[in-house]
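FORM 12-B: Structure-to-Sequence Request
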């Protein structure tokens, strides 16, 4: 019952990660208690010799040496216990972080639909911090708090039943008090964790969106929101600490009264001759040792509840499934410049009332270029996400070179297709590092070819470090168009044979227009290219045009053919305005 009260099944799962280290911690703790018992018996023997022997010092010497040895052994064992506990904690921390990070990476963009990146970060960084203390310190201490008092009360029984009973009652009061408070503590620890996760997510969002907040003159407002979150966190922390301090006071009281009561009863029995003076010393030592593991458990008690609350966040993260999996994959190699066919593809975002795409069917020959056009919200980016297999359609299917897209392993899809998006995030490092991220072992020659094809050389010529110039955090030192060029070079180096280019919407950005036109020329024939197009000039260079309207295909065909028939494409040509911005 006690175990169920204080141990979550997840804790046991985590303890398995730490394996023998947890057992070593428990064993060292129990052995230290054993050394204490040996010291207590030896000291009791010393007292007995001092009071009753004819040559007290000489006769007490062996027991005194044993006591000194036992005290030294106890110190050494407690040191070993702490080493094992730290090792268990660090092992859990490293292992759990690596697993969670791998899981978060496998999830890809799945957290877009649930907790934000800030919440995920709070779980991986701080949640793990609570859990490592929970597994490394709380769990072994819990085991020690059951084993050691149990054994010591047994030993006390051999001296006097009344004394053993007083200690047993004192020992029992501690978990009972903790149980009485456990619901309150659990609720407050959960409230604390929720407040902490909210605060961490808000800080992360604020730092990432700082430029937008400054541009919107919203920093003061965001500051106020952060202050409210910080105040909520402070209140939740105080409430949680207040309740655990109340339990600490009850526990400390039970321990003091238990030790004092047992020693007084033993002293009374010594006065009446039922026990010897040495027994009083023995009871004093053993009663104190009985409560020691409970006292130490108390120190980690708070950690235990925070660990349980953090475990909920981690369990939620672990329960999240990737949006796409390799369940239907075969060993098919990703084809060069593949034909792409969509058959009655439909997709509705989780929780959305209307479909983002319905009944989308078209066939694109391999090596050709498709321009997707349509008003804002018509489903262009959703179609791109489906073609890149960031998400799977709810209905219909997408064929790549005649095979269903899910029959290729995700690693193949990621290697063989690339997205050059409007919002490119580069990793902190140099331009070279970012391009080579696609293939770290690429030769200088291949790197130079990709860099020249994407016109990155024009960018590096202007920068002091050339290709080794740092891009800054998330690529902040480069312009949007320059970041797109680096991303294009990365995609070309990776040898992607399906390329999705998301053209920038800004009508003023002529550099991007040149980039896309150039990219279309570079990739023609070696790549099947899909451009989310906002400019007529881009579309006219494409082999096919797909006009989307409210998630459905309005028109599909070569631009010259579409221009000859009445319809949205002819209307767009007639209106001759940036086509993505049409109402
Ligand atoms: N994560 C999401 N959750 C719910 N609905 C979404 C999500 N992303 C997009 N949508 C909705 O799906 C529809 C299609 O969006 P999509 O981004 O594909 O349009 P788009 O044509 O690319 O728009 P734009 O030109 O403005 O980028 C829109 O109604 C949009 O509100």
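FORM 12-B RESPONSE
SEQUENCE OUT:
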């Amino acid at each position: 019952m006690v175990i169920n009260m204080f141990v979550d099944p997840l804790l046991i799962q985590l303890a398995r990660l730490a394996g023998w280290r947890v057992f070593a911690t428990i064993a060292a703790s129990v052995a230290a208690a054993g050394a204490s018992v040996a010291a207590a018996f030896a000291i009791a023997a010393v007292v007995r010799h001092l009071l009753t022997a004819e040559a007290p010092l000489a006769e007490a010497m062996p027991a005194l040496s044993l006591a000194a040895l036992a005290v030294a052994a106890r110190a050494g064992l407690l040191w070993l216990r702490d080493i094992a506990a730290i090792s268990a904690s660090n092992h859990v921390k490293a292992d759990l972080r690596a697993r969670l990070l791998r899981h978060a990476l496998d999830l890809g963009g799945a957290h877009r639909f649930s907790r934000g990146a800030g919440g995920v970060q709070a779980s991986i960084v701080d949640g793990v911090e609570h859990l490592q203390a929970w597994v490394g310190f709380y769990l072994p201490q819990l085991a020690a708090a059951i084993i050691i008092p149990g054994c010591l009360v047994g030993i006390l029984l051999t001296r006097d039943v009344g004394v053993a009973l007083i200690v047993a009652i004192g020992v029992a009061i501690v978990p009972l008090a903790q149980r009485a408070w456990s619901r309150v503590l659990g609720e407050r620890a959960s409230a604390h964790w929720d407040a902490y996760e909210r605060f961490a997510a808000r800080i992360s969002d604020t730092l990432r969106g700082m430029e937008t907040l400054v541009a919107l003159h919203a920093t003061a407002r965001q500051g106020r929101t952060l202050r409210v979150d910080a105040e909520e966190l402070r209140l939740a922390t105080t409430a949680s600490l207040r309740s655990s301090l109340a339990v600490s006071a009850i526990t400390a009281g039970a321990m003091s009264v238990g030790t004092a009561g047992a020693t007084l009863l033993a002293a009374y029995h010594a006065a009446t001759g039922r026990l010897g003076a040495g027994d009083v010393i023995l009871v004093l030592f053993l009663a104190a040792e009985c409560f020691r593991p409970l006292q130490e458990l108390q120190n980690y008690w708070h950690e235990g509840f925070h660990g349980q609350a953090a475990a909920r966040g981690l369990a939620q993260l672990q329960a999240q499934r990737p949006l796409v999996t390799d369940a239907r994959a075969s060993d098919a190699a990703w084809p060069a410049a593949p034909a792409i066919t969509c058959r009655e593809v439909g997709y509705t975002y989780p929780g959305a009332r209307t479909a983002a795409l319905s009944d989308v069917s078209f066939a694109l020959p391999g090596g050709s270029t498709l321009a997707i056009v349509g008003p804002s919200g018509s489903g262009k980016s959703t179609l791109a996400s489906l073609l890149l297999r960031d998400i799977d359609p709810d209905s219909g299917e997408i064929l790549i070179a005649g095979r269903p897209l899910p029959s290729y392993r995700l690693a193949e899809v990621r290697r063989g297709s690339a997205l050059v998006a409007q919002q490119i995030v580069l990793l902190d490092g140099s331009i070279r590092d970012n391009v080579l991220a696609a293939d770290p072992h690429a030769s200088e020659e291949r790197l130079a070819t990709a860099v020249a094809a994407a016109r990155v050389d024009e960018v590096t010529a202007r920068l002091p470090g050339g290709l080794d110039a740092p891009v800054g955090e998330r690529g902040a030192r480069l312009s949007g168009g320059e970041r797109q060029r680096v991303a294009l070079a990365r995609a070309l180096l990776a040898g992607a044979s399906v390329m999705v280019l998301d053209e920038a919407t800004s009508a003023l950005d002529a550099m991007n227009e040149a980039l896309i036109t150039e990219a279309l020329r570079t990739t023609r024939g070696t790549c099947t290219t899909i451009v989310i197009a906002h400019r007529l000039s881009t579309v006219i260079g494409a082999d096919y045009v797909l006009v989307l309207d409210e998630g459905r295909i309005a028109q599909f065909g070569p631009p010259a053919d579409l221009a000859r028939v009445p319809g949205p494409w002819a209307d767009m040509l007639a209106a001759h305005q940036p086509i993505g911005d049409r109402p």
